[in-house]
Amino acid sequence: MVDDSLNRTGASLLIDALQKNGINNLYGVVGIPITDLARLAELRGMKYYGFRREDSAVDAAAAAGFLTKKPGVAMTVSAPGFLNGLTALAQATKNCFPLIMISGSSERHIIDLAQGDYEGLDQYNVAKPFCKKAYRVDRAQDVGLAVARAIRTAVSGRPGGVYLDLPADTIAQLNDDLGEKNMGVYKLVDPAPLQEPSDDAINRAVDIIKQAKKPLIILGKGAAYDRTEKQVQELINKTDIPFLPMSMAKGLVPDDGKHSAAARSLSLKNADVVILIGARLNWMLSYGDAPQFNPEAKFIQLDIDATQFDSAQKISAPLQGDLTSILNKLVPALTATGYKVPSDWLDAIAQDTAKNDAKFAKRIKAGETNPEFGYYGAIEPINDYFQEHPDTYLVSEGANTLDIGRDMIGMKLPRHRLDTGTWGVMGVGMGYAIATAVETGKHVVALDGDSAFGFDGMDVETMCRYNLPITVVVINNGGIHNGVDNVVPDQLGPTTLDPTGRYDLIAKAFGGDNYYVTNYQEMKDTFATAVESGRPSIINVQIDPSMGKESGHIGNLNPELNLKPLEEAEQKKIDKE
């Protein structure tokens, strides 16, 4: 008689359930109690990618979810490992990335009596506020059902993170329900059903748009996730409505298209109808408030989740459903009316865009020769490369690096840009970049500020271990925002890092390629070589420590204290010495 006990373990059933639902990549950090689970996954044909920190592994799984529309799966060990992954789980939920974080855990009866288990923590209840849903699997026979519930929860409605708690006993436990077909493992039927809006809702939106003199479309990353580029481009091309993309929606319509509302301030302040497609009126859009927005503007919002309507402004035409289904009804209904945007609105945007572009071009040109080498000179060669090679992926994080890079690097293809997203969390760069390389097989550029890189830089070893085609560009100004903030003579300032740090040597340490550049021409000569090598590499871009302002484009969120009297007093002490 063949011993099939391994096939009936919770571990084996978990792997079977994931594979049956088309999930074949795992990202994680192993240890007690999941090490053999990861080994078994590899033996059963899954690809396991081992990271150096759990947050990077969970970030990688989240990026995989965004890129594939299937939940990415990450595994962590118990308690401390679980807690390390928790920020990334919450970030994925806020970003609406489908993710399943699976953590090994202690037995419930020990936790409930607070008996002091190894790495003991009530992970199931801790996770609940930070994800869409948490599930704990106490019986091997329930593993298939738990995976099905986790997948459906992660991808249906507004996507997000799901936590799956896997006690050690469940991993090794046998499913003895031999009469159950396939031991409870099955493939889901239609995990994220399409949802169409009503005809009345469509007609209401069309009636409002028809009256618009100055309409504006704002594209959010939800529109990129839902693969709406065909419908969005048809809507824009047939109506001439200008569009403004949020950062991860860049490329849904090429940034250099004639309908791009690059004149952001003018467009928002004057638009009389704002059409939100997969975008939310949160802090990134100033909640739709004046003076950034026209106080008389009417809002039309396309969203899968009705609770997002009226969250910050009155929504005059809410359209609930998946974005593809909404647009499949909205676009023909609107174009059938023959609606076209008045030319004077397009002319006003074009004129302001041309003025802004001229100013921006001067900054970029000056960056080529500025003796104080800065962001514009460092990033211009990256943009040049992306315009010639649009099927290259960009992951970006930082403050000034992120903000200036977003303004400078134009995207031509959808879902080719990932960044810090809704929360603005630092430390996503390496995880996102690694998953992007794994899931797409394409070249990836990870553009980081030196501060941001410090959060997850050790996963350069992961990048090199798997020999992934990732070029990490670290813009090093020696500080958090900049490296010249030393207010007290005998100690380093709170924003000061090492302006001479050789981040590129981290790649060399693990067998990758390293480059060090100090001016525009060196960056121009180096960047394409590094990317096209297909090798894991780091380019350390040494810019002037004075470059960079507090918190980049969102310095207004950082409260200022009147430190001048204390600073003057410190200066007087220096003068006396």
What's the gist of this structure?
With 577 residues, the chain is of the alpha/beta class.
Any descriptors?
577 residues, alpha/beta
Structure in words:
This protein has 577 residues and is α/β, with parallel strands linked by helices. It is 41% helix and 15% strand. It contains 22 helices and 17 strands. The protein has helices at 10-20, 35-43, 54-68, 80-95, 108-112, 123-127, 143-155, 168-172, 199-210, 221-225, 229-239, 264-270, 323-335, 343-369, 375-388, 400-408, 429-440, 450-456, 460-465, 504-509, 520-532, 564-576, and strands at residues 25-28, 47-50, 72-76, 99-105, 133-136, 161-167, 215-219, 243-245, 273-277, 298-303, 315-320, 393-397, 417-418, 444-449, 470-476, 513-517, 537-542. The protein has a six-stranded parallel beta sheet, with helices on both faces. A six-stranded parallel beta sheet has the order 13-12-14-15-17-16, sandwiched between helices. The mean pLDDT is 94.
